[in-house]
Hints:
The protein starts with 6 loop residues before the first helix and ends with a helix. It folds into two domains: 2-56 and 272-412, no CATH class; 63-266, no CATH class. By secondary structure, the chain is of the alpha+beta class. It has 13 helices and twelve strands. The protein is elongated, with a radius of gyration of 34 Å. Helix content is 53%, strand content 18%. Helix 2 packs across helix 11 (325-362) and helix 11 runs antiparallel to helix 12. The longest helix is centred in the last third of the chain and has 44 residues, at 267-310. The strands form two sheets. Strands 1, 3, 4, 5, 6, 7, 8, 9, 11 and 12 form a ten-stranded mixed β-sheet that branches.
Amino acid sequence: MKFLFDSDSWQEIYGSIRKNKLRTGITIIGVLWGIFILVVLLGAARGMENNFKSIFGDFATNSVFVWTQSTDRPFKGFQKGRTFRLTFKDINVLKSEYKDEIKLLAPRNQTMGLLVKGFKSGDFKVSGDYPEVDQVQKKALIYGRFINQNDILENSKVCVISEDIYKQLFDKNEKPIGQYIKISNVNYKVVGVYKPSSTINIDGDTAYIPFTTFQKVYNRSDKIDWMMITANEGVDIKQMEKDILLTLKNLHKVHPDDSRAFGSVNLGEQIAKFTGFLTGMQFLTWFVGIATLIAGVFAIGNILLITVKERTKEIGIRRAIGATPISIKRQIILESVFLTTIAGMLGIVFGGVVLYLMDSFLGNGEDAVLLNPTVNIPIILIAFTILIILGTLIGLIPAYMATIIKPIEALREE
C-alpha cells in the first residue's frame, strides 16, 4: 500500500492529467454522467413510490368495491336492461361462503341531504355506514370519534362530518362536538369531524351516520347501495372478486357472462399494476445507470491506452533504469481508480443537488408528484463500489499493455 502515499506517483498522475486536460475532463464527465443518471433516476423512483404510499396509505389496499347496474342480456325469463339492488341476503351469503377469505365486509347506503344548523345550511352527501368503513379508508379525525358499534346497536342519531361541512355550518373556532345539526329535518348530534384525504377521497364531503339509523330514517328496509370488501392477507384479490361477482349473479339470476349487471373496482389489482410499474422502473433505472457507468469506464480505459501509447518512451526509460512491471501496473491502475473516484463523487454530489431541487419544486403541496426523492446511503455505496471495481478492472488493460513494452523498443520510439 506504500505506493498510494508515494508523492512521485501522484505527481505523475497530476502531470498526465495536466497535459491532457480536455481529454481527461471529457472522460470524467462520461463516468460522472453515468452515476448522476443512476442517482437521479433512483431518487425519482423513490419519490414516486413515496407519493404512491401517501395516496393509498389510508386504504386497506386489498379491497373490492361492488355495486349493481343493469343487465345487458336476458336470462331466466328476465329482460335485458333489468335493474335490481343488493340486499342483506347477499351480505349473509358472502360472509358464509367466503368466511376464510373475507376480512371485512361493509354494506353502505348513500343519499343527498340538506344539512342545517341555525341559519346556515348546505346540500351534502349522507352515508349510512358501519364502523368497518373506517378500517377500509382511515379517517383523519380533527375532533371526536368515528361511528362505533354502540351507535349501530342503538340506532343512534349521531353523525361524523367533514371539515368543509364543519366550516360551512359552524362559526369559526366553534366547538362542534356535542352540538346538533339537522340532516333532512332529523336532529343528529355531532360526535366527530374528519379531514378528507387530499389525494383519493371516495366519498367527498360526507356526513356519516350509523347504517341502522340510515335504514330506518330513509326507509331502505334490507336494500343496499354498494359494499366494500377487504380480503385477508395472502388471498388472491383478483380471483376473489371474480368468485364474488359470480355468486352475486347466481343470487340475482343474472347471466354468468353479463358484464354490465355489476360494477366493481378492485383496488388491490390497480395497486398491483402500479407497484409492477415501479418495480420495472427501478430495474430499468439500474440497467440504464450501470450501462452508462460501464460506457464511461470504458472511455477511461481508452484514454489510458492512448496515454500509455504517448508515454511509450517514458515507460521504456523507467524500465531501463530498473522499474518493475508491477510498479508500472500500479501506476496505471491508480490513475484509472483516481479518475473513476473523482467522477463518481462529483456524480453523486450533482445527483444529490438535482434531487434536492426536484423535492423543492415537485415535492410540496397537495399536487406533489415526487415526495422526498432520495436514495439510501447503502445503495449509493454499492453503486460507488461497483464504479471503483470497474475502474480497477478497466485499468488492468492499459496496465498490461504498458508492461509488455520492451525497454529497447520503447527507447527507439520517436
